[in-house]
Write a structure and sequence with these properties.
Blueprint: H1 21-28, H2 32-78, H3 86-122, H4 126-131, H5 133-159, E1 168-171, E2 174-181, E3 185-189, E4 195-199, E5 206-208, E6 213-222, H6 228-241, E7 249-260, E8 266-275, H7 279-296
Antiparallel strand pairs: 1-2, 1-5, 2-3, 3-4, 6-8, 7-8
Amino acid sequence: MKYGLFLNVTNETLKQYTKNNFLNKFLNKFDFDEILWSLTTKVVSIILISILFFIITETGRKVIDHLFKKYQFKLDASTSDNTIDNSKIMIKRRNKTIYTLTQNAFHYLVIFFWLYSILSIIGIPVGTLIAGAGIFSLAIGLGAQGFVSDIVSGFFILFEHQIDVGEHVIINDTNGIVAAIGLRTTQIRSSNGTLNFIPNRDITTISNLSRGNISTLVNVRIMPNSPIKKIEDIMSQVNEQKKGTNANVIGDPLIFGTVYLNDGSLAIQVVITARSGTESKIQADYLAAYLKALNQAGIVIPMSPETVEVPEKPQKKAESKPVTITNPLPNK
């Protein structure tokens, strides 16, 4: 051992800890001064190494923040003229993605070396344990396989440029904005503010709504006796008035016509092509403009869905057929 923690004890040097001789002999085999010194040294070393890694962590984070935020500031300054440039938007999102990934990788790296240092101070041979094939196989069986699977899946998601931070996506059944992409998990923030952590190995389907233009639907509910032609003319006038006022609207809105909605009500549907990420705002903007124009024209809009019942076909009555009754008894 590194320290002489055990002593050769004779009856002359026996210290009396208790009234039991056997217990005294057992306790006298330990050098408590050396044990206390060893324990104190290790505790102080762990505290000092933890402080050192804390300083390294904070310094590294500040350096990463400075580098990426400086580049992000340049990107923001280059797009300050309010013009829409999809290539610059993609570069800004990619910069945020690499930033979150770098922070995540740095965090795991610091934790790994901190644990390695702590175990080395305690006296556990970390290198021998890692090199041992049996221990390595056991680690994989206890959960390292899932960790490796997360990293591999995350690598391909980034390598194939499937998603970036700030994009609107649907991953599996989770709909929201990408908040961060890490080595193990991808974070999606839903519209209600919920932050969802999805392990990368569990990502099976990614629907990216931020690549290209998005078609959004505006449904204006009507009653069965509403003047459909007049309503469509008013909506066309609204489209003409709003033409060219929003750069995020691609082309002209298309009045699709009268449709049945899922709740059984009638509505006049409009299809609007918008730039990705702006479809919800444009949908609300056009719906408000349609409702305002229709109210000014005196057209009543149902406050609740007006269900239109489809009349059932009358059932055919069963035709009566003559029934012949035979007398089983012989005539007398």
